[in-house]
Amino acid sequence: MKLLIINGPNLNLLGLREPDIYGKQDYKTLCTMIEKACEGIDFEIYQSNHEGDIVDKIQSAYKNADGIVINPAAYTHTSVAILDALKAVGIPTVEVHISDINTREKFRKFSYVSLYAEKQIAGHGLDGYVEAIEYLRNKL
Ligand code: DQA
C-alpha cells in the first residue's frame, strides 16, 4: 500500500505563517509526524505552491498510489483543475485542513476538493494528517 500526501501553497511556511491560526510547528515537524504515522507503509510527501504541479502529481499517482491525503490550501476554494485531477485518477482521498475552514471567512467554507474527497478533516491542527492516514490505512 502506498499513500501520497500532498500539501498546497504556503504550507511550507508553517510555523512562520499566521501561527495563531496554523500553529507554531513548522513544515519539517509536520513531515516527521507524517513519517511516523506512515510507519510500515510506503508513502511520499509532496508540497508545491503551483496548481499545475499539484495536478501533475495527482496524475502521476494513477496506478502508483492507493490513497491520497491532500491539503490543497488556498486551492481548496478555487481549483476545479485539482478536483478534476482527483476525479480522473479515482484514488480514495481524504482532505485535510489544519484550521476549521467552516468557521472562518465565508470564502473558505466552500471546497471544490470536498466534491470528490470521501472525508474532510478540518480544525484538528497537524493531527488531522495523522487521522487521515489512519483512516486510509484502515480502509485500504
Ligand atoms: C488551509 C485553509 C485554507 O483556507 C488556507 O488557504 C490554507 C490552509 C488549512 O490547512 O487550514 O492555506 O487549507
Walk me through this protein's architecture.
This protein has about 140 residues and is α/β, with parallel strands linked by helices. It is built from five helices and five strands, in the order βααβαβαββα. A five-stranded parallel beta sheet has the order 2-1-3-4-5, sandwiched between helices. Helix 4 links the parallel strand 3 (about 65-70) and strand 4 (about 95). The site of 1,3,4-trihydroxy-5-OXO-cyclohexanecarboxylic acid has 10 residues, from loops.
Task: Give a concise summary.
The chain has helices at 19-22, 27-37, 51-60, 80-89, 127-139, and strands at 2-7, 42-47, 67-71, 93-97, 119-122. It has 140 residues and is of the alpha/beta class. Bound molecules: 1,3,4-trihydroxy-5-OXO-cyclohexanecarboxylic acid.
Q: Which segments are poorly predicted (pLDDT under 50) over 5 or more consecutive residues?
A: none
Shape, please?
globular
**Beta-strand percentage?**
15-25%
Structural class by sheet pairing and helices: alpha/beta
Search tags:
single chain, 5 strands, 5-stranded parallel beta sheet, 5 helices, alpha/beta, 19% strand, 34% helix, binds 1,3,4-trihydroxy-5-OXO-cyclohexanecarboxylic acid, globular, 140 residues
